[in-house]
Amino acid sequence: MSDLVPAATIESDSPARRPGTFSAEEEAVVRESLRRCSEKTIEAAVAYRKTGSTAHLPALILGIFERFVEPDLRPRLAMGDSDDLRVIEDLGLDSLTMMEIVMLVEEVTKTQIANDELRHLSTIGDIKAFVDCRARGLPPPPVATTYASAALLEKMPIQPPFLFLDEARVSAVRATASYRITGQEFFLQGHFKDNPVMPASIMLEALGQLGVCYLLTGLPVEEGKKVDPATIFFASTDGVRCHRVCKPADVLTLSLKPKRVKAPLATFEGNIRVGSEKAVVAEEITLTFGLMDAPTPALAPAEAAPTPQAG
Amino acid sequence: MPRVFITGLGFITSIGNNADAVETSLRELRHGMVRYEPFKADNIPVKVAAPVAGFKTDGVDQEDWVIPAPYVVKREQLRSLSANALYATCAFQQAVADAKLSPEDVSNDDTGLYAASAGSPAMLGHQINRMREFGVMRCPPLGVVASIAGTVQFNLVAHFKIKGASTGFSSACASSAHALGFAHDEIALGRQKRMFVVGAEDGNTETILPFAAMRALSINPDPETASRPFDTGRDGFVGTGGATVLVLESEDEVLRRGVAPYAEVLGWGQASDGHNVAISHPDGAGLASAMRRALKASGVTAADLGYVNAHATSTPIGDASECKALRAVLGEHASRVAVSSTKALTGHGLSLAGAMESGFCALAIRRGFVPGSAHISQLDPICDGLNIVRATQPVSPGIVLNNSSGFGGANVCVVLKPAS
Fold first, then answer.
1. pLDDT for B273-294, tens place per residue?
2. Which residues of A fall within a CB distance of 8 Å from B137?
3. A168 and A240, same domain (yes or no)
4. What ipTM describes this predicted complex?
């Protein structure tokens, strides 16, 4: 089997469904395609193609990213939260490099990713999840929602000068956001005298605001209901550690993962980074919320008023 | 009209990868020819080429290339480069440093870039082969910009953030002389204050060897004598590659920045043979006309000339045509004006030739020498009446004329004058 096989054939020939048909020539092709990747990456690819086990995919995909990012950013990929890394903003890869990455993933895993599918994949985690679903023959995971600043202002019950998110991105399993400390925040005048430092309490507030954004994105919490924006409040936090002082011009990268979401409580774990440096970790952040009746989408298709941009 | 000066040079050539090395080669008549490994097959009659030293750019995967210090090219940029665009990138950096330009001087509305390159036949061939073999979706996304004829200006304009005029010229061996001429005009017409002129060629099997089918290449296997313009034994040209970048600036900019120019670009002229697609006019009619126009545009006559850097590529017909044209234009001054072809040392750089040789002339003007015409053991009688200088002379060349001729009978001549 060569790379020439048309897409339809590849789909039906997917190794996930037909393990054990991986020839020595095919292995040689895989090794050649991945010759600039680490041995670990090549081994993961070979193991995947031999067994069809999707357990090998994360290492394979991470290894392919590692090959394309500039050497000074590679250590960042080795950190535990690499799934949250945004391909363009955090790894400095442009859309053409992304295309090269996708071509290599396609070639080695014998999958196909169409251009319009590619547009929705912005983090390493997105790509891993997408390829995993594709390899298992499952439909791709729901598309994440990206909010530019205008969309955030429209969506959020919290407004300036107390909104600490510049842009956000929410999927079923993760929410990420960024906030650039401008230095003009009113409280920095007094925190501290002649030494503006972002208060830790405000950083937790920012994570909480990202939780609000997550809850309001409209992911189903209960049949026929949705979260009432006027009912979300901070409930508790636990296991908070601050690692780094954050100052004006720092860009905070916020990341939140839902642990339990069931009315009236939503619990997340979250962290904030500045570049590759850890700033804040919160093992638990819990919000309370109330529900309201949600019109069914069929009756009110124009309900998605904020028109967030898809990534 | 604003006067135009050359204020910076960058060289990646077969006879040196910086101005000092080039000067040494020109003074000591050191050539860049080798027995070229890719030509060793028995069915290739040509054995000699003049590759760029220090770089290793064979192979279509740019990440396999070897790029000598001090040049560092990130993968993100490298993937859209062909070999000639890589050479141009390096020569550009040299020229910017040589002209003492700040990043703001390079990137502004008043600074443009004109380039000349035939693209990269090697890259293009690879793209097309891969498209046929694996389908277009398995081709590198930037394969197009790495291979087609505009590759040099696409890459340099984007990478160095050029904001003024930019385009490429495609008149084969006259291309970069055209680029220089029109870049001069951009400044002389007041449209730009500064122009980069770039000539570049891959200089590999794919750019050079097709000329063997035309019987235009020397089949002399000896690197010492394969390229010998004006010699009776000449039998064709030797191919080369590399890049040259010239920085052109208006007088105002020269004064504002307080830099010492290499030379003034007095003017230029062009004319076409209207004769044959690949063979020069037997009397060099178009070339003679181009020389006259260049002198007229520059406000000088043959009496003012000190040196002509001839196009002479070492082909039997081309050199003969140029000798006739030179005699016709120089007239009573033919026996005085020094004439040489530096292609005896460098080989023929095709699209690179005009910029490279104008760069040599600018260097010769500033450093005070007249490059000799190497490898002549028996001067062809067609040169009778001309002052072909066979050794480099350590004297200022005065006003210089640089000739270039390309396919289709395009002829371009540029006049340079010591800056004053």
1. 999 999 999 999 999 999 999 9
2. 103
3. yes
4. 0.73
Section B60-82 average pLDDT: 93
Specify whether A159 is located in the same domain as A263. yes
Q: Which residue among the candidates B281, B311, B323, B361 is catalytic per the annotation?
A: B311
pLDDT for A18 equals 52
Q: Report the side by side order of strands in the sheet with B263-272.
A: B166-169, B111-116, B194-201, B242-250, B4-12, B263-272, B410-418, B399-406, B305-309, B338-340, B387-388
Chain A residue numbers touching B158 (CB-CB < 8 A): none
Strand partners, A251: A180
Nearest CA in chain B to A106: B138
Parallel/antiparallel/unpaired status of strands A265-274 and A175-180? unpaired
Annotated active-site residue A120? The verdict is no
Tell me the C-alpha distance between B114 and B106, whole Å: 14
With tokens 């290499």, the residue in question is B262
Select from A103, A105, A106, A118 the residue whose CB has the most chain B CBs within 10 Å, as the one to mutate to test that interface: A103
Domains of chain B: 4-418 (3.40.47.10)
Global pTM reads: 0.80
User: Amino acid letter at A179?
Assistant: Y
Burial category of B153 from C-beta neighbours within 10 Å (exposed 0-12, middle 13-18, buried 19 and up): buried
Place of tokens 């901070």: A234
Q: Which residues from B are below 8 Å from A when comparing CB atoms?
A: 63, 74-76, 79, 133-135, 137-138, 140-142
Edge-to-edge strand list for the sheet holding A233-242:
A145-147, A167-170, A175-180, A251-262, A265-274, A277-288, A233-242
Here the CATH number for the domain that contains residue A32 is 1.10.1200.10
The reply to whether A105 and A233 lie within a common domain is no
In a domain, A297, yes or no: yes
CB-based contact A199:A279 (threshold 8 Å):
no
d(CA B323, CA B373): 14
CB-CB neighbors (< 8 A) of A97 in chain B: 76
The residue to which tokens 């010239």 are assigned = B246
Q: What is the DSSP string of B221-249?
A: --TTTS--TTBTT--SB-BB-EEEEEEEE
